[in-house]
Amino acid sequence: NLPRTYATINLLKPATYSSVDDFKLTWSSIENYRVIQKIGRGKYSEVFDGVNTENQERVCIKVLKPVRNAKILREIKILQNLCDGPNIIKLYDVARDESSKTPCLVFEHIENTHYRGLFASIKEGEMRYYMYQLLRALDYSHSQGIMHRDVKPQNIMYDQPKKRLRLIDWGLADFYIPNTSYNVRVASRYYKGPELLVDDTKYHYGLDVWSAGCTMAEIMFKKDTMFEGADNNDQLIKISKVLGTDDLLEYMRKYNLTLNTYYQSKLDRCPKRSLKTFITSDCKDLVSEEGLDLLEKMLQYDKNLRITAAEALEHPFFAKIREARANSIKK
Ligand code: ATP
């Protein structure tokens, strides 16, 4: 059940790294910021464009709705631990309104190009770049013992003119501790890995790679959604129609997992479908042998047969990007 990489990271770090028990926060005053306009809304927050009134820097202010204190502290702790990593959204400050005590997270502001428009006109080179930057964020987070657990296009901010990508919304993220059973009610339906759908609570960083694979498939095949389940049960059915049932059953056997009664009647035996069958005249310019190979390795039922983010970064699909990076470092 253990991941092939970074399995024991949190056991090697001081206990304060992954625990919020003695986490003392100093809240600054929200008076230091001026709100400009609302830019987003989530299940757990309202998000505003704002300015730091001391240095006039543009910021993004996430005003949290009332949730468990431990959940808020976990998000802050994780953001602080990851703050210096590549393509991770930077947390500048935590502020509170003096009277209401409403907690606000103050982030760097990203001029986001909405993913729908971006994906509609994206070219092959930019798709590779986008995926590479996303995988860098994931590999860094995993190397720090943290799984994001909600990777999806809506949580990837991308400033297209500046070619800057940031992975946001660390509200569902958690520390990976080997042999822990985790809650499978994480991630958004279309991006939920098979492990969440078959109640494999001993999941790990691989979950994020699955969700990133679903994101890559949307871009590469110009599909609104790769696996569009009507509900969580149907989600696994939709996956099995593409990846087939043999590998699913093999994965379940290996980890001694059992299918719930819903699936026993609904899951028809079906063969694995080649990802090539998703190629249409619309998307053919985005598809390459290497792209299909990487995607196939990301979309594996078995979390331990799935490619890791670190391995994905070394995949031939990114050869040109690695070369360009190496050259720019030399200069
Ligand atoms: P969810 O319901 O998906 O869990 P949430 O309540 O945790 O959402 P976020 O996903 O962090 O909130 O933010 C909600 C929206 O606000 C984002 O989808 C995005 O449009 C916008 N947003 C958040 N952070 C930034 C940022 N740093 N720069 C620009 N826009 C942002």
Characterization of the model:
The protein is an alpha+beta fold. The protein is 37% helix and 15% strand. The strands form three sheets. It has a six-stranded mixed beta sheet with strand order 1-5-6-4-3-2, covered by helices on one side. A two-stranded antiparallel sheet has the order 7-10. Helix 7 (206-220) runs antiparallel to helix 11 (289-298). It binds adenosine-5'-triphosphate. Residues 39-40, 42-45, 47, 60, 62, 89, 107, 109-110, 112, 154-155, 157, 168-169, 171 line the site of adenosine-5'-triphosphate (ATP).
Give the SSE order as H and E letters.
Answer: HHEEEEHEEHHEEEEHHHHHHHH
Percent of sequence in beta strands: 15-25%
Stretches where pLDDT is under 50 for at least 5 consecutive residues are none
Radius of gyration, Cα only, in angstroms? Answer: 20 Å
Biggest sheet, open or closed, and with what strands and sense? Answer: 6 strands, mixed
Instruction: List all distinct small molecules, including ions and cofactors, that are bound in this structure.
Output: adenosine-5'-triphosphate
Q: SS-based structural class?
A: alpha+beta
How many helices?
Answer: 13
Helix content: 25-40%
Global shape: globular
Distance between the termini: 43 Å
Number of strands: 10
- What strand line-up does the widest sheet have? 1-5-6-4-3-2
What does the average pLDDT come to? 95
